[in-house]
Every structure is written in structure tokens, then in C-alpha cells.
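Hi, can you check this record?
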Amino acid sequence: MFVKTVATLKSDLETKLAFMQQGSMTVTLVHNFQFEPVKSISNLKNLEQNLENSEYMEKFYNYLKSVIGPQGDPCNGLNVCYDLIDNIFERKFMVLFSWTGTSRSEQPKYAIREFRNILSAFFTIVKSVNNNFSIKMMESFFKSITKNAKKRSEAKGLRMSTVHRRTKKPKAGTTNFSIDKIAIFNNQSSEENGT
């Protein structure tokens, strides 16, 4: 069933990407399009159904594209993903989801992977600003978001969610290469001068 879902999602995405690349989905400001982040299952089902309509899909695409901007993302599209997820869903609502619909607690969860039109729109928007973004990356992102949904819902929202790249610290006992190089150079120079 999972393979079938991914295959269907991929074919839908390829169709929409081809549609976008033909220039049919140009970014224009949509003045009459109103969208608020989804906060209930009924809103989510309505959005899923509305995205089947190509006219609504284009308005939705243009609206979210205007929110994230035309610029790419050096982090494989993940910063754009965080921005989009916060504009499409309320954080407290995401607690009700997991990728597959399974839950460790007694509270049942909905499977986000079943909402193919929403995932397709999400992928199309991220892919439009970052060509390296893939379906596997999107799946991994949604798994991570749903796994950490409770922590994200409790966050105060003081800053935007972004990818954090940490630099590696040098191991204890190692020396700085440039200092060693200078010391070796100084020793060779003093030996050549006879001092």
C-alpha cells in the first residue's frame, strides 16, 4: 500500500511539475485568495478536496509562493519546508498526525501521507525554489515534523524554525595546524642562519 501511495504521489507531482515548467503556473499575486492555517480535520479535508481543482491549486501555489519568496534555500529546501508547514498548518493541529497514522499513545493519529493533494502542492512549491529537494526528503521532513509536533506546539514562536548546522569542535589534544606550520618554518629558518 505504501509503495502504491508513493507511486501515485510521484505521478501527480510529475504532472504538476510539468504543468509548472510549461509556464502555466506563473507566480502572480492573488489578491482575492484568502487562506488561514488549517486547524481542524474538516478544514484539512476541505483543503485536500479543493486542491483537486487546478484553478484553486494555482491560487494556493501562488499564495504560498508569495509567502516564501522566489529565492532558493542552501539547506536542500528544508528552511522553506519549515516556513511552509507553519503557513499551511497550525502547530497545535500537527500533534494529531504521524506519517503512517500510528501512535505510541492511546490518542489515535491521522496519516499525513494519505493527503496526497496537500503533499503534492507542498512538494511542488519547495521543488520550485530548490531542485535538489526530493520526495524522500519530503517524507523524512514530515516524519520529523510529526514526531516533534508536541515540542513545536509548545514553542513560543519567538523565531522562525530553521535548519541548524553545527560545526565540529577539534578533539582535545590536537594542535592547530597553522601554528605547527609556523613553528616548523621558524626552526628551519634559524638552522639556515646558523643560530
In short: The chain is about 55% helix and 0% strand. Confidence is low (pLDDT under 50) at residues 19-29. The helical segments are 2-21, 41-50, 54-68, 78-88, 116-129, 135-147, 149-154, 177-193. Residues 2-169 form one domain.
